[in-house]
Amino acid sequence: MSKNLTSRAEDYSKWYNELVVKADLAENSAVRGCMVIKPYGYAIWEKMQAELDRMFKETGHQNAYFPLFVPKSLFEAEEKNAEGFAKECAVVTHYRLQNDPDNPGKLRVDPEAKLEEELVVRPTSEAIIWNTYKGWIQSYRDLPILINQWANVVRWEMRTRLFLRTAEFLWQEGHTAHATKAEALVEAEQMNDVYAAFAQNFMAIPVVKGVKTESERFAGAVETYCIEALMQDGKALQAGTSHFLGQNFAKAFDVKFTNNEGKLDHVWATSWGVSTRLVGALIMTHSDDKGLVLPPNLAPFQVVIVPIFKTDEQFEAISEKAESIIKELKALGVSCKYDKRTTHRPGAKFAQHELQGVPLRIAIGPKDLENNTVELARRDTLTKESVQIDDIASTIKELLEVIQDELFSKAKNFRDEHTTEVNDFETFKKILETKTGFISAHWDGTAETEQKIKELTKATIRCIPMSNKMEKGTCVYSGKPSTQRVLFAKAY
Amino acid sequence: MSKNLTSRAEDYSKWYNELVVKADLAENSAVRGCMVIKPYGYAIWEKMQAELDRMFKETGHQNAYFPLFVPKSLFEAEEKNAEGFAKECAVVTHYRLQNDPDNPGKLRVDPEAKLEEELVVRPTSEAIIWNTYKGWIQSYRDLPILINQWANVVRWEMRTRLFLRTAEFLWQEGHTAHATKAEALVEAEQMNDVYAAFAQNFMAIPVVKGVKTESERFAGAVETYCIEALMQDGKALQAGTSHFLGQNFAKAFDVKFTNNEGKLDHVWATSWGVSTRLVGALIMTHSDDKGLVLPPNLAPFQVVIVPIFKTDEQFEAISEKAESIIKELKALGVSCKYDKRTTHRPGAKFAQHELQGVPLRIAIGPKDLENNTVELARRDTLTKESVQIDDIASTIKELLEVIQDELFSKAKNFRDEHTTEVNDFETFKKILETKTGFISAHWDGTAETEQKIKELTKATIRCIPMSNKMEKGTCVYSGKPSTQRVLFAKAY
């Protein structure tokens, strides 16, 4: 199967699209722009969910659930937010179908079942949630509210790609309410840190933490924190965002509270989210021309055992060994699948597990039984060796940690090699045409320059890094004075 | 707070509605018929999800995700299914809003952004899923497909009640594909058994397993298995259903496979689901006039510790004890919350935890420190006693198991006391007017009689119990011959 995969060098975009489908992660559906997430792809998302959910709860958040629909009058209440999402939202106008008198056997919208007020399928939930919070908040004693929601959202994007940009996607959205601006700012930054820690420790993806420029901010936010990653084709991908919303939504929905001095004030807000887009980032960061490469911390199963046998007796003896290895691995918290299918030959199984990125493969044949060994193959390096079966479980556990670390290092080296400090616009353009990657350059701070650079090069300001040092310089485009470098790149 | 709760005897329906809101489980939203599930209510649902998900995976199922929207042409493909849901479905007709020229600052549907084909918000996913399975199945080697989905669905019900019947609800829906009728039947029955085991062992709700009559079947099913529970007001509640769909969807979507004899055949199907309705069933089965009573196996936290103190020194000494108890409980897998809020007095905390149904409450005061005791209060029996602090953790663990068992027994006794064998229609009517509950009676097997009884008494046939013995008798209404009793009740 993997032989048929287009190589990254040949056509990176085609490689990605083919890989998602061939590795059984997802496919396009009958609904324009919506995907079907297949069990193997969904298992990766479940692993991500479990870890993120744990991190949210550790930082004091609780889950809740708010309606899928936003009545139009609420949707339009926060003007900038509405403006940002109105152009791409699915709208429910009717609540019934009836038999179509002109087409027997077919249905049509019942004209008499028109809703008094249209319902927008949530593209994000600030509006419906802040309208709810209004009833929950009277005093500073009701604050903070620290809530997260796991949900589906719909944004009617015109150009879609599996995981990266789909009309419907799955995500989590945190929505918090605070008594002070300072507390809300700390929350927004904290959640961006949580995302960065998750990306680095679980996805093995190095990220730059930063804030967005005004033109790249979330519609309705005062400040947008983000984590930015670099894909293997040198394009950046925004992997998560956390917004300080100021009092914008509290004002739009009239949410006031009595503070501890007895005065009325509007509530301060944050929201933050990551989505199934992360699965796309995971694929594009680590995978190769043979297929997926999954970091052990997010692989649906970390080890697969393939028996190699001719006789039933051999199969039984191998199975006994396999089951005992699985038991030992389980005790160490390592997940392992025993691929004993009789419908596939070992070679086909090897190809499938390679394509699907299982971190470690164990093959056991009759000779291994004699020698008390197994063949252990690493997916990331495509190397294999014969290892003694004693202590195999702890060997594997350590090796999985090594793989996790090495995937991160490899991605970080790539990112660092593809991050260039640039001081003149000619070099800026040349890099985007050849090496691509992140460009660290001075910018005069105006939206006009940002826009002009985008028009000329397709590169946008991905973020103003949090780690930035103040440094005097001149804008790479306008030559005007600047105090710090920002990160440019072409982006997904 | 609990003093204000309407009693069950006074008005059961009002008691339920008040309790859901006062116990902070859920509330109505700005969207007609849709609820907001608040953190405490959602935590119960999360506990249910975790356990069900474990049971589904143990029985070989994997999770996946399919689109929220069903194109109208797919929706109408399986005729009976379409007919069953067409009257109550939300329909997306447009994909954009624009500024309303007649109302500055307002938005309206953009008439130029009309969809070529309307999209139905899924009321259930058979159509979109079987249209997808068509691409996955060619041979018997591709079978079975054992998939579950956790999702939101929308049914535009006219009369809604929090958890019990809402326009949007959360659920899981299993959709499986099989090579043989026998295998599909086994699957459908197995999943009904899984639901029954979950209801009994985790929700502490006794259920009757049975099959539905033709008129009560899921639209598009050949056979519907169900579990039926009895609420405290004597009304039945359908807690879960599992459908044998025959080849109906395979035929509607042309899903054929080559069987192991090389012949083409249509695939056999099942689907099965439970929803947030279960939270409603949980509340109505166990709770009392003081508030919620939660079975320990599904309580968001099983124990709460309330410190009773006047001085900071007392608080510190009590907190030390509390933290050590929490640690011991955690080691035994018991969840415990330390309610050290300074904004509430102990009495208010007691009332809140009673209202919210925390199974066990520990109070620790200065005297307890002296005597090495704590006050331990059971929510279900409203009893309390002073117990020695030594071995408190294992005492509590055992007590939680006792509570779980006793709640089940109590509910089972109630159910058994409210199940009456009836042989004549006068008694039938009288019971429904006074004692209510399940009525076990002979039925002649016709839809006409079933309908007539419903018109006259509002009672429906809840199920034909799986445990039924064949027994000769005469129909309670028509007097015609019958071979077995069925279960009637008024139902939610």
Uncertain regions spanning at least 5 consecutive residues of chain A:
none
Helical content class of chain A? 25-40%
Distance between the termini of chain A: 28 Å
At the fold tier of CATH, the topology name of the largest domain in chain A is: BirA Bifunctional Protein, domain 2
- Oligomeric state: homodimer
**Biggest sheet layout of chain A:** 11 strands, mixed
H/I helix tally of chain A: 14
Strand order of the largest sheet of chain A: 3-9-10-16-13-12-11-24-27-23-22
Strand content of chain A: 25-35%
Would you identify the CATH H-level superfamily of the largest domain in chain A? Bira Bifunctional Protein, Domain 2
Number of self-contained structural domains of chain A: 3
Helices and strands of chain A: which structural class? alpha+beta
Average pLDDT over all residues of chain A: 96
Biggest interface pair, counts: A-B, 64 and 64 residues
The CATH architecture of the largest domain in chain A can be named as: 2-Layer Sandwich
Rounded Rg of chain A: 26 Å
What would the principal axes of the Cα set say about the shape of chain A? Answer: globular
Number of DSSP-assigned strands of chain A: 27
GO biological process, one term (chains A, B): prolyl-tRNA aminoacylation
EC number (chains A, B): 6.1.1.15
Keywords (chains A, B): Aminoacyl-tRNA synthetase, ATP-binding, Cytoplasm, Ligase, Nucleotide-binding, Protein biosynthesis
Subcellular location (chains A, B): Cytoplasm
Descriptive notes:
Two copies of one chain form a homodimer. Chain A folds into three domains: 2-68 and 125-286, BirA Bifunctional Protein, domain 2; 301-401, Anticodon-binding domain (Rossmann fold, 3-Layer(aba) Sandwich), CATH 3.40.50.800; 419-489, C-terminal domain of ProRS (Translation Initiation Factor IF3, 2-Layer Sandwich), CATH 3.30.110. Chain A has 14 helices and 27 strands. In chain A, strands 3-9-10-16-13-12-11-24-27-23-22 form an eleven-stranded mixed sheet, with helices on both faces. In chain A, a hairpin with a 6-residue loop joins strand 25 (473-474) and strand 26. Chain A is globular and about 80 Å long. Strand 5 of chain A pairs antiparallel with strand 5 (91-94) of chain B. Chains A, B: Catalyzes the attachment of proline to tRNA(Pro) in a two-step reaction: proline is first activated by ATP to form Pro-AMP and then transferred to the acceptor end of tRNA(Pro).
